[in-house]
Every structure is written in C-alpha cells, then in structure tokens.
Design a protein that fits this description.
Oligomer: single chain
Helix content: 40-55%
Number of helices: 3
Distance between the termini: 26 Å
Order of helices and strands: HHH
Mean pLDDT: 88
Amino acid sequence: MSASIFEALQNADYNLRAAGHSLQIALAKDQLHSAVILLGKGYDIGDQVEPLLEGYEKVEDVPEKGQVVPV
C-alpha cells in the first residue's frame, strides 16, 4: 500500500517522535527526504509516493511533475 506525500511526512514525524531505535530514525530520515524532494519537484501533498518511485533507483531521479520521461 502506497502512502501519500502527506502520509510520508506524518510517518516521518511519528518515527522521529517515537525514535527509540536507530531503525526508526533511518526510516524517518528516508520518509522525510523523499517527501521534501517530491514536493520540490512539484508533486502535490496528496500524490502517492510508491508509484512515483517506481522505475527509479532513488527519489532524486524522479522527473519533475509534468515532465515527459523519454522511453
């Protein structure tokens, strides 16, 4: 199940607040990073994260919203 960018931010917030384990901190950092990058690329807060990341090794490789991706 994919989370929206907003849900990714909520998850990161929760994981940072509940962080008693380094795994939670690592998850939160990843969630926060992905959300910030995708918002910076013009995606909406309600867009689903997983479908945007499909086919890309890292979030930085996702094209900006509305940009045509060559096949």
